[in-house]
Amino acid sequence: MARRWNNDLTHADATPEAEFWNRRRIIAGMAGTGLAAAVGGKASASETLEPNSWEEVTSYCNFYEFGTGKEDPSRYAGQMTTKPWNVKIDGLVDRPGDYSFDQILGEMTLEERIYRFRCVEAWSMVVPWQGFELADLLNMAGVQGGAKYVAFETLHRPAEMPGTAYNVLDWPYREGLRLDEAMHPLTLMATGIFGKPLPNQNGAPLRLVVPWKYGFKSIKSVVRITLTDQEPPTSWNMANRHEYGFYSNVNPDVSHPRWSQASERRIGGGLFAKRQPTLMFNGYGDEVASMYEGMDLARFF
Ligand SMILES: Nc1nc2c(c(=O)[nH]1)N[C@H]1C(S)=C(S)[C@@H](COP(=O)(O)O)O[C@H]1N2
Ligand SMILES: [Mo]
Question: What residues flank ion ligand 2 with Cβ within 5 A?
Answer without folding.
Answer: 62, 119, 215-216
